[in-house]
Write a structure and sequence with these properties.
Distance between the termini: 35 Å
Protein name: ATPase
CATH class of the largest domain: Alpha Beta
Keywords: Heme, Iron, Metal-binding
Shape: globular
Structural class: alpha/beta
Helix content: 40-55%
Organism: Luteipulveratus mongoliensis
GO molecular function: electron transfer activity; heme binding; metal ion binding
Strand content: 5-15%
Number of strands: 8
C-alpha cells in the first residue's frame, strides 16, 4: 500500500477524513443556528467525553457550521493557569471582524468595549509594559465591561457583542475547548452571562467541550447551569460508524478492509476515534495490498500500540510524579480486581472507589488526597461521582498494566 496515499490522520484535534458517528450532534446544532437566526431562544452547548473521542474535532466542525451560516466565531482553549479575559477578548475580536457589520462607528464601539474588558486583565495603574495589547485599533471605551468584576463585565461585553450581531441578523459563537480548566470565578461569570443573553434573546451562544466532569463543574458554579446548557456526551463510536470511519477514506483511495479486518480493528480500538486513526494509519502502511486483512491488523497492532504508548499514553504518564504514578497504577489494579470479582461489576468508564486504591497501596485514604488532587488538576483522572475516580484517557489502565 502506498504510504503517500495513506488517508488516516491520528493527530490531536485533527479532523479525520470521515467524521463518522456525529451526524446527530451536527444536525442538532444546525437547528440551534437556525432557531437563533429567527430570534428564538436557545441554550448554549456543552460537549463532554474522554480524551480521544473527538471532542475537539466536533467542536471545530460545529464552528465551521456557524461560519457557513455567516456567523461571527471565535475559539479559545482554557488553561488552568490563565484567566478568561485575554483569550476571550482575542476570540471576540475575531468574531466581531467576521460579522461584517456595515457601520464602522458601531463596530469600533464594541471593539473598544472588548479592549476595555481585556485591559482589566491587569490591575489599574500597572505599567504600560505589563498591559496586554489585544491588537484592537479602536480606543478603549471607559465605563463599559471594565469594572473589574468579571461577572458584571462579561454580561456587559456579551450584551454589546450580541447587539452588534442582532443588527445584521447574524449570530456570535464562542467555542471553548478544555472548558473544565476555566478558573471557578470565570465559570461562574460565563454561566451568568449565558443566562442573561438567553433571557434577552440575544444571538450569542457558547459551545464548550471538556472532560466528563464538566457538567459537575458548571453545576457547582451556578445551580441553574443544568437548565442553561444543552449537554451532549461524546462517546466511542458504535461498530457501524467505526467501520465507516475506516472504509470510507480507504475507498476514496481504491482500497478496502475485509470483514475480519474490521472486526479485529474494532476489538483493538474499542471504537475510540483517535485509536481508529492510529491503528488505521499503521495498518495501511504494513498491508502489502488491498483489501487489508485480519492478518495485516495482527502485524500492525504491536507497532500501533508502541506508537500510542509513547505519544498518547506515555506523554501523559510522564507528567505525573512518582507518587502520582503509584496512584495511577493502583487505579489500574483496582479495576482488574473489580472485573474479577463475581460480586461486583466494572462500569463502562472503569471507575474505581478511592477506598480500593487506598487498600491496594496499604495507605489511609486521607493520606492519598494530595496525589489524587494533583492528578485531578493535571486532567489525568476525574471524579464522576463522590468516592469514585476514573481515567480521562481510554485504555490507560491497560497501558499502565503493560508498561509499568
Amino acid at each position: 500500500m502506498d504510504p503517500i496515499r495513506n488517508p488516516y490522520a491520528p493527530g490531536a484535534g485533527q479532523r479525520p477524513p470521515e467524521l463518522a458517528g456525529r451526524d446527530s450532534e451536527l444536525e442538532t446544532f444546525a437547528v440551534v443556528i437556525e432557531r437563533i437566526a429567527r430570534g428564538r431562544p436557545e441554550r448554549s452547548v456543552v460537549l463532554t467525553g474522554l480524551r480521544g473521542v473527538g471532542k475537539t474535532v466536533l467542536l471545530n466542525a460545529l464552528r465551521s457550521a456557524a461560519v457557513r451560516a455567516d456567523w461571527g466565531t471565535g475559539k479559545l482553549e482554557a488553561r488552568p493557569e490563565q484567566r478568561l479575559r485575554r483569550p476571550l477578548s482575542a476570540a471576540l475580536h475575531v468574531a466581531v471582524r467576521e460579522l461584517g457589520h456595515p457601520q464602522a462607528d458601531d463596530v469600533d464601539h464594541v471593539l473598544g468595549v472588548i479592549k476595555s474588558f481585556a485591559h482589566r486583565a491587569v490591575e489599574p495603574g500597572a505599567k504600560l509594559r505589563d498591559r496586554w495589547n489585544p491588537g484592537i485599533d479602536a480606543p478603549a471605551v471607559s465605563g463599559r465591561a471594565d469594572s473589574g468584576d468579571i461577572e458584571i463585565d462579561l454580561v456587559e461585553l456579551l450584551s454589546d457583542v450580541g447587539g452588534l450581531a442582532a443588527d445584521v441578523g447574524k449570530g456570535i459563537g464562542i467555542f471553548i475547548d478544555e472548558m473544565q480548566d476555566l478558573h471557578p470565578d470565570d465559570v461562574s461569570a460565563l454561566c451568568a452571562a449565558c443566562h442573561e443573553i438567553s433571557q434577552s434573546s440575544l444571538p450569542v451562544i457558547v459551545v464548550g467541550a471538556g472532560l466528563p466532569h464538566l457538567p459537575a463543574v458548571l453545576s457547582a458554579s451556578k445551580s441553574y447551569s443544568e437548565r442553561l446548557f444543552r449537554y451532549a456526551r461524546i462517546d466511542r463510536l458504535p461498530r457501524d460508524a467505526a467501520d465507516r470511519a475506516l472504509q470510507m477514506p480507504a475507498k476514496e483511495e481504491d482500497a478496502d478492509f475485509t470483514p475480519e479486518a474490521l472486526e479485529a480493528m474494532y476489538v483493538a480500538t474499542g471504537g475510540y476515534p483517535y485509536f481508529i486513526q492510529a491503528y488505521g494509519k499503521v495498518a495501511w502502511d504494513v498491508a502489502p495490498r488491498s483489501p487489508i486483512t485480519g492478518s495485516d491488523i495482527a502485524v500492525a497492532a504491536p507497532e500501533a500500540e508502541s506508537e500510542l504508548a509513547v505519544g498518547f499514553f506515555g506523554s501523559r504518564y510522564e507528567r505525573a510524579t512518582p507518587g502520582e504514578r503509584e496512584y495511577l497504577r493502583a487505579m489500574a489494579d483496582a479495576a482488574v480486581a473489580i472485573a474479577e470479582d463475581a460480586d461486583e461489576q466494572l462500569d463502562e468508564i472503569e471507575s474505581v472507589p478511592t477506598s480500593d486504591v487506598a487498600v491496594i497501596l496499604g495507605r489511609k485514604p486521607q493520606s492519598l488526597s494530595p496525589a489524587r488532587d494533583a492528578l485531578l488538576k493535571k486532567g489525568l483522572i476525574y471524579s464522576g461521582e463522590r468516592g469514585r475516580i476514573a481515567f480521562t484517557v481510554p485504555h490507560f489502565g491497560r497501558y499502565l498494566r503493560a508498561h509499568t
